[in-house]
């Protein structure tokens, strides 16, 4: 009889956990984490190369994509802003990377990485701000302080 009671308690506990998880799959996450999955993040890349060249600065060329989405090849004119939106997936593996080239310089960089950017990009309107400059690719999460994260 004691064995039946133990089995019943285990089955009851398993059923309770299953009901909680399947009725609300996000119940296992903290409230703060749950909100992160529904936030739309804005990734901006701006051509801030020097304008002191004859006939303006050459365009910056970009090709950005993730595992599931290719945002395509783009030519960005001087001071033009290219942007797209994304959300973080359930497993927090969302990653957008870009190949950038300007004149004879080229570089790959991670434009959005969920584990790195879910907190830091919320500071300024849920935006990750990137600036392509003469000496590299700069990041800002407040549009005031810029850091050269990816030198050429």
Automatic annotation (TrEMBL):
GO cellular component: extracellular region
Gene Ontology biological process terms, A to Z: rejection of self pollen
Compartments where located: Secreted
Key words of the record: Secreted, Self-incompatibility, Signal
Primary location group: secreted
Pfam families named among the record's database cross-references: Self-incomp_S1 (PF05938)
Residues passing through the membrane, by range: none
Segment forming the signal sequence: 1-18
Family listed: Belongs to the plant self-incompatibility (S1) protein family.
Protein name: S-protein homolog
